[in-house]
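Pasting as-is:
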Amino acid sequence: MESPSGTLRAVAGAEAAGGRTDRFLADSFQGLSRARVKALIAAGLLSRDGAVLRDPSAPVRAGAAYALAVPAPAPATPVAQHIPLSVLFEDSDLIVVDKPPGLVVHPAPGNPDGTLVNALIAHCGGSLTGIGGEARPGIVHRLDKDTSGVMVAAKTQAAHEALSRLFASRAGLERRYLAAVWGLPPAEGRIEAPIGRDPAERKRMAVVARGGKPAVTHFRRVEAFGTTAALLECRLETGRTHQIRVHLAHAGHPLLGDPVYLRRLPAAARALKEEMRRELSGFPRQALHAASLGFVHPTTGAALRFEAPLPADIEALLGRLRALAG
């Protein structure tokens, strides 16, 4: 849904009297969320009968004339960059992509450009109708730079707010990952352990005894490669930073190639011949892939589900593990 701009006008009827001004205006102007209306009121862009009104909770006056000035979406701060994207789905509300490994999601210190956001701004162009008054995509969840797979981004303020609520509540949300790990985990299991900042190294996350957030990961063994490694399907009951990587490392089965949570080679790796150990331990990223994502469309209510095949590097890794186990 396109976000309106210009001066929007509404006259309050008797039925609206006494209600909150921000709620009345959000109901009156299609495409403007209540949060956006509140921000505009706080910026002094609302008048009531010609006088500026800055209180979004002010009671509506029957017969009063309201005028809300809505600026056109400003150009996005991140610049548009033409980076190839594998688009799985796109409509006027959202876009779903298969993110390749090595692509950072959002500009940040150390990665000011060349990100998924830069690519989406270039790809979507004028169909980005404004998130918080800026023409940019709405990121509602993230994948680590070196994690590949399915991601969704919003193109409108309304879709961004709806998807954010969905990901926060997890109602009807499906997120399935594939992970290649060291050792032979049980056929299936549930890891429940709180996650917080590692007290000894603040850039890392860790399972912590106090101060962490509840975290639950379910896993199922898809394929075993002797006792050396396994391919797991992981499903998230919660969505903490680095959750799968932290939980599996904590369980004694760190991801192959994980540069942060694989601090010492497990026994399964040390038992290998040196050449194979060097090859497998040299996998250049964490072997983690967001294989599928399912959710309810924020506008149509349709149930959507998208899958992304394993990228070539993980397929090649599994091939070497199969050869080793065979």
